[in-house]
């Protein structure tokens, strides 16, 4: 078993995000919240996770300001809604690489035309399309 | 401690991706690979993780086709490079929400102009900007 480590003393925003979302259960809870789950039972049915684990993860997401909890409903805050590109990025990568050809999988569609979304692209502030090699990380001095 | 669960029987591409990347250590290894780490020692210095854990995570990333291992170097495969939007999405969310105002953090810059990247946007196939409410998940029947 791997000891849970906190990354929030790191100056890297990727590590901080990893710490705030907490673990993969938390990310799948956020996914379900985007897909319409609101009640404890909704998340439990979707995830098939033990009640004590789900309860701890929901509390942690509320403590981190990602979910609001009121009137038995868990809803995404603005900070939670801002995880949309993270979920879409994981979904598109999974669609491209994690299924055999022809293997069925759920799809994220645009509600208006019922078409798959455009693949996410990384752009410079002036609009140029960027590959990883076109970028550099500037470390904190 | 939370039992490690495999999600790869799920029809959801988010869950499959979560399973393939394995855990947060794996994602931070991928981050470091994008930032130029290639050798075991590079990753160890950056992550401060125990050798046995790092070794297991590197092997798992190789087994999943995300890293290649040759001549003591670990390098991203095409499948690994395709995780770029996932890393960028986590980074931008962290930059927006995981630091106090004025708190220093590393930055991902466009190499040509040394400017921060454009925030990721989710678009429909016809180019319309989409919010979460503009999308729907079609479950596998």
Give an account of the 3D structure.
With 141 residues, chain A is an alpha+beta fold. Chain A contains six helices and four strands. Chain A has helices at residues 13-21, 24-34, 40-47, 51-63, 78-81, 84-97, and strands at 67-70, 73-76, 107-110, 135-138. The first copy, chain A, has a two-stranded antiparallel sheet with strand order 1-2. In chain A, helix 2 (24-34) packs across helix 3. Chain A starts with 12 loop residues before the first helix and ends with a strand. The interface between A and B is large, with 83 and 82 residues.
Topology at a glance:
2 copies of one chain form a homodimer.
Chain A: H1 13-21, H2 24-34, H3 40-47, H4 51-63, E1 67-70, E2 73-76, H5 78-81, H6 84-97, E3 107-110, E4 135-138
Antiparallel strand pairs in A: 1-2
Helix pairs in contact in A: 2-3
Main β-sheet of chain A, in a few words? 2 strands, antiparallel
Give the strand tally of chain A.
4
* Mean pLDDT over the residues of chain A: 89
Oligomer: homodimer
Number of helices of chain A: 6
Proportion of beta-strand residues of chain A? 5-15%
Low-confidence stretches of chain A: none
Most extensive chain contact? A-B, 83 and 82 residues
The sequence of SSEs of chain A as H and E is HHHHEEHHEE
Structural class of chain A: alpha+beta
* Coarse morphology of chain A: globular
Report Rg of chain A.
Answer: 17 Å
Alpha-carbon distance between the two ends of chain A? 34 Å
- For the largest beta sheet of chain A, what order do the strands appear in spatially? 1-2
Which percent range fits the helix content of chain A? 40-55%
